[in-house]
Amino acid sequence: MPHNDRRQILCAMEGPPDPQNRLAAPHELRLVAAGITTLVARRILETKGDVMSAPTAPVHPTPIANSDEQSPLASGTRLKCDAAADVLIVGAGPAGLAAAAELGRRGISALVLERGESVATSWRRRYDRLRLNTSRWTSNLPHAHYPRAAALFPSRDDVVGYLEEYAARNSIEIRCGTIVERVDRDDHHWTITTSAGRMTAAHLIVATGHQHTPLIPAWPGRERFSGRLLHSAEYRNPREFQGADVLVVGPGCSGMEIAYDLSQGGASRVRVAIRTQPNIILRQAGPLPGDVPATLMYRLPPRIGDRQTRLIRRVTIGDLSEHGLVPPKEGIMSRSHREGKAPAILDRPVIDAIKRRRIEIVAAVDSLDATGVILADRTRLEPHVVIAATGYTTGLDPLVGHLGVLDERGVPLIHGGPEAAPGLRFIGYKPRPAQIGYVGAEAKSVVKQIRKELKSRATR
Questions:
Q1: Cβ-count burial 42-56 (b if 16+ within 10 Å, e if not)
Q2: Which of 87, 139, 207, 390 is the most exposed place for a label (fewest CB within 10 A)?
């Protein structure tokens, strides 16, 4: 970043005099600087930590659901359907694997149930150009750094390889191809009904994540649309959309990155429909990854983070109002704390494509008909393809909805450590910066509580 820009950021952080806000900017900067120093020190210690080896072969799904062979992705013996473990874990993503590894370190038996054909199934299905929005510095699970060969912002395959190695190194017992259908409380145990039979455990950890089930809005006329309508979860790369007029709905990270991928991959026209103006930050502006200051600012009062990120956006991105992107009144940190909504974390080329109008910003989708899309401003479009980057639901209602542990959005009322019901815990349901690193901390907290309870029960 040019020296003048850095000076402008520092000056603007101080802000105008405000008699009702006596928190001095130098104090804010000291807090941020201390945090950055900590993270840089952590990066240096990677050379002394437990560094995961890079995958030696391309990452491919490995079906094992109908095989008696041990999974190549997880050491240990697979348990029979009627067996009981101290802890059952639903989901072999980052949160579930972290919990299983922490339990194993404390000598507590655990079994992970995974509906997919392998570890990290949902990650394998992401689009080809996906990279983490957070750096490998802040995206580690406990006791395991990314291999030094991994990109600063790990790719999809970097993440899959990392999770495979993590599962194998920690000898995590995983049963793949097992769909958990329902969870019930039976005396002092949980009974888990699965596609392979019933299982019981005193403790159950649900770690299927908040991005579980793709959600496409019920737009009027959706069923009559003769073009192709798909969720962003189905998108892989732009090859099949060459020459197509594509409307991407949703200005989040995935929506914007898919739009850019299409614009570079041969689509004839790419537009992004926006209902709520997004907060935007660059993935990297200057020497530090954007998640480093973002993670620190998340811990400060939201108004401080809002003020600083607005200034950073103004200096690093500029005014995009003439291109349809107006800075929202609610800042990044306020929105994140209020509704758990992350900003659109973009690379510089995406911003450039918007400025060059290779990606056009349009109004929200109001309805569809047989041949087109009607926007909220009554503009009519006739795209060949509509890609809905419109988010996910947790998909937890069939499993635990009858237990009264979910809110109206299907998100656990209590998650991240404390019990939602006796012996039942949820981890990985709090959207926040450096999500993967954070679920590792949640896993440690959960396992600490479970260990305490098991010890207490043993002494009775």
A1: eeeebeeeebbeebe
A2: 390
Give the pLDDT of residue 233.
97
pTM: 0.82
In this structure, what are the phi and psi dihedrals at residue 436, rounded to the nearest 5 degrees?
-65, -45
- Which of residues 391, 409, 432 is at a domain's end? 391
In which domain, by residue range, is 377 found?
Answer: 214-391
Q: How confident is the model at residue 47 (pLDDT cuts 50, 70, 90)?
A: very low
Is the domain of 190 the same as that of 313? no
> Residue 195 carries which side chain, given as an amino acid letter?
S
pLDDT in tens, 23-33: 334 455 555 55
Q: Which residues contact 67 (CB under 8 A, 6 or more apart)?
A: none
Tens of pLDDT, residue by residue over 356-412, are 999 999 999 999 999 999 999 999 999 999 999 999 999 999 999 999 999 999 999
